[in-house]
Amino acid sequence: MPAILVYQTSTLLFNVAFYVAIVAQAASAALAAGRRNMDLFGVCVLACATALGGGGTRDVILGHYPLSWVAAPHLLVVVCIAALATVMLSRFMHHLRWTFLLLDALGLVIFSTIGCDVAISMGLHPIIVIISGMITGIVGGILRDILCNDVPLVFTGQLYAIVSIIAGGVYYGATVLGMSYDVALISGIAVGMTLRVVAIVYNVEIPKFSYERDPR
Amino acid sequence: MPAILVYQTSTLLFNVAFYVAIVAQAASAALAAGRRNMDLFGVCVLACATALGGGGTRDVILGHYPLSWVAAPHLLVVVCIAALATVMLSRFMHHLRWTFLLLDALGLVIFSTIGCDVAISMGLHPIIVIISGMITGIVGGILRDILCNDVPLVFTGQLYAIVSIIAGGVYYGATVLGMSYDVALISGIAVGMTLRVVAIVYNVEIPKFSYERDPR
Amino acid sequence: MPAILVYQTSTLLFNVAFYVAIVAQAASAALAAGRRNMDLFGVCVLACATALGGGGTRDVILGHYPLSWVAAPHLLVVVCIAALATVMLSRFMHHLRWTFLLLDALGLVIFSTIGCDVAISMGLHPIIVIISGMITGIVGGILRDILCNDVPLVFTGQLYAIVSIIAGGVYYGATVLGMSYDVALISGIAVGMTLRVVAIVYNVEIPKFSYERDPR
């Protein structure tokens, strides 16, 4: 299989989904950078941290070396091109807030789904498989938001972390039930995207925890 | 020894202390989350990062795999239950600021004390043993505060990092002097908690460094 | 070679440059801490994260164990002494903003240059060599700024990440061309420092990306 296919043990669809997620996360980072008046190199650094930081954090936590972008450095080039293209195209975009949220959702759901695979291949516990997917899905966005000095999206607003868990759970459940990898992947992505978009449109929220007195 | 005992080479008291610290850190994260209006899944994510992030960071830095919660996934469940229970109980709590500071102190001191053990078992230098304890003790709280977009508690206010170093130092010194693990553990925790509580009550501060002119 | 020389496979000049960079980064952290009213232990923690966090992050990402300061714990002592000395001397300093920027630049350029070496010794791809240098160069400052709750310097203002890439590129290119390590090192540092200082003095900026509409 050519070196450009990073998920070498999985199907072509896995690799296509992986690149879609990386490009989506890079684009979401470029849009976030625009609010912060960053220069174009800062945009590239932020995009790499966002698009590759989730999988990288998962690999470091699981001791799964080498990291994907260290083994496949062309991923860094793909991320930078995607980020710079977003910068150039953004002046023609309308509805930037929606674009940002949809790109973020796409990265979240795809990474959550295919992120389960590393833990499965290492023979880890089902809980860790789901958590591995969640780390892959949410950490990139968390890094983006921390580097932009925001409270991460995962901690505010509508369904987010639970979308990641459900997308990963659908994928993992489908593979356990004997479905093909491709069907499991599409199922997980479809369920996750639907849930996240519905949550944004109808402002579906999990009960929040707040109190008036300040603990500090 | 049953799998629920995570510190398999150490005593029962070590494991009890470990669970107490994890629950305390999860609860401190839940209280911090309440100020930020987070949803219940966000609370769980923040609690896991806070309660397991210190030991995880230490293990990644020392190359000590697998991480405790990857080997013992039930820890994630314990943390989430502790965080959600805190959310439910917090409406009946008074003095939330004090509760937050005491839970944070308990996690700080216990993790600092038992965190030395991993470095000792790897045969590392005494300085690294103390630093290993300090990383285990303070990084969870730092992650909690960064994810909530605060300046970390360790960098403000009363004695904090030095409490961690002294608690770890007492534990390590006691074991070097031939005391039993349990006595060393209790000594480290007692000295550390006393110091931290005295520092908060009497507002004991290390000399601070500040200047008027802004370097940026 | 004595244990105090951390880069044991390289020349004496490498080790001198390494210590200069560590001291410079520790001092930049101490100056940043002064703005935040931190106590002296907080200053030491921040200085260690800043001075050793870049190389540590690189080593964790590349799976290059043990980390330099775990193998050579005296580095922690050097960093703390440098930070506390900066605190004591800062009251006699003028032009703190310039001092801060120059110390930060020195750490950035030296770490970027010598940070390429680890990746070269591991036989990694040229892109990864440059990125390894960049991570070593910029992550310490990013950690410093995040822990101080600022938007990292790398994402604002004048040429920064590109200085790191060029300094590393000059070093790597010179070694590939067969120059001695010392000549390559001095070339990389000289080019990088010149570029960064010119960028600050003449306010050289890469085109920035910004738009008026807010995506969130």
UniProtKB/TrEMBL annotation, chains A, B, C:
Main location: membrane
Cell membrane found in the keyword field: yes
TM annotation in the entry: none
Pfam families listed in its UniProt record: Gly_transporter (PF03458)
Entries under InterPro entries matching the protein: Gly_transporter
Location in or out of the cell: Cell membrane
Keywords carried by this UniProt record: Cell membrane, Membrane, Transmembrane, Transmembrane helix
Domain Glycine transporter, first and last residues per copy: 17-90, 102-173
Keyword Transmembrane annotated: yes
A GO term from the CC aspect: plasma membrane
Membrane topology: Multi-pass membrane protein
Family of the protein in this entry: Belongs to the UPF0126 family.
Protein name listed in UniProt: Trimeric intracellular cation channel family protein
Organism: Paradevosia tibetensis
